[in-house]
Amino acid sequence: MAVSATKTDVIVIGAGAAGLMCAISAGRRGRRVLLIDHAEKAGKKILISGGGRCNFTNLHTAPDRFISANRHFCISALRRYTQHDFIALVRRHGIAFHEKKLGQLFCDDSARDIVGMLLRECEEAGVTLMLDTTVGRIEKDGGFRVETSGGAFDTESLVIATGGLSIPKMGATGFGYGVAKQFGVEVLPTRAGLVPFTFADADPRNFKDLAGVAFDAEVRCGGASFSEAMLFTHRGLSGPAILQISSYWKDGMPVEIDMLPGAGIEDRLKGLVAERPKAEVKTLLSDLLPRRLALKVTPASFDGRPANRVPEREWQSLTHDLRHWEISPAGTEGYRTAEVTLGGVDTAALSSKTMEARAVPGLYFIGEVVDVTGWLGGYNFQWAWSSGYCAGQFA
Ligand code: FDA
């Protein structure tokens, strides 16, 4: 005998950033929306994001700050729900915020303000939130039947907003990829992004003795480059510049680090030599780099020689090496600490306007589960808001 099911218009699975926004957007259109999550709280990643202050968007959001097999896919959604739309929402709720740097907007007080705002919006939009609810079988027969620990539901539209694989201990699962596969929607290989690099233990250049040293660098890999702080850790490298470049890195690729970024470094070095001609090279370099790093990277062949006795050719070779310092990470810290998952539901299978699977009417994918990954700095939440809003307009 068929199990009886409650009817609804839209089911959104995953009450994270994208799912909450989608539920609001659909609910505001008068759709009956059921928002389901297996966690006991909505928006758990929002709560821990940005060190508890949630870097909720970036003023400079633009399609070139996103990585995807189809770099044009995100254009439409980012245009239809922009960073300014989200900022206007935040302002309407009286949430104080500030720009920290590079267009990154953070709450003055707490990420809880953003979750509170989204939950209030859900309530006003008449969204029914079901937490602590496990989703079981999903079947399609015209609409969708979704079996859950809270009963079975029939729905016209089903939106998958279950995120990526990063931080499994917070409830991340590959659920969304499974649903995609069940309905024949292609899933591109996934890997951890915005994640620290590790060195092999056996690597003689593993730099463990530099743990804690931070400095500004330009880091390059795979045609991308980022100028920001980087940090040596006990296991490898971290800091914003490294997290950014990690999203462009694949196994075996070298990463190039410019320790003396910016124009005019040769003149600065000449100036230092003129000021202190008898100083050793490593001492002068300590004016430009953290001392522990300067001591480590100055070759022993410079020891005991006054800077003004070092021929031009050797200076050139040293600055070249410091500006093109190449490392080969053994790997990354993986999903355990990654902020995002690269890859995922293939955008080729989705409409960029509605996020609906072209071959499966009524099935939508939004947020991180889709193969669109932003840079560090509020871009990933903006993708969640934009893709969630757009799907909610059609689901
Ligand atoms: P998200 O992961 O937020 O939500 C998915 C939801 O689905 C979760 O609530 C989960 O419980 C639920 N779910 C999963 N499987 C399920 C299943 N089987 N059944 C039911 N529910 C299921 N980005 C940014 O722009 N600014 C920032 O400051 C930060 N900071 C940051 C810090 C840390 C530590 C991390 C790990 C990540 C960030 N990010 C970030 C990235 C950002 O958090 C991420 O890109 C978005 O949360 C993605 O939103 P989604 O809604 O797609 O997934």
TrEMBL record:
**Gene3D superfamilies tied to this protein:** FAD/NAD(P)-binding domain (3.50.50.60), HI0933 insert domain-like (1.10.8.260), Translation factors (2.40.30.10)
Q: Which cofactor does it need?
A: FAD
Q: InterPro entries from the entry?
A: BaiN-like (IPR004792), BaiN-like_dom_sf (IPR023166), FAD/NAD-bd_sf (IPR036188), RsdA/BaiN/AoA(So)-like_dom (IPR055178), RsdA/BaiN/AoA(So)_Rossmann (IPR057661)
RsdA/BaiN/AoA(So)-like Rossmann fold-like domain location is 9-393
Stretches assigned to the RsdA/BaiN/AoA(So)-like insert domain = 191-340
Which UniProt keywords are listed?
FAD, Flavoprotein
Entry-linked NCBIfam families: aminoacetone oxidase family FAD-binding enzyme (TIGR00275)
This protein's name: Aminoacetone oxidase family FAD-binding enzyme
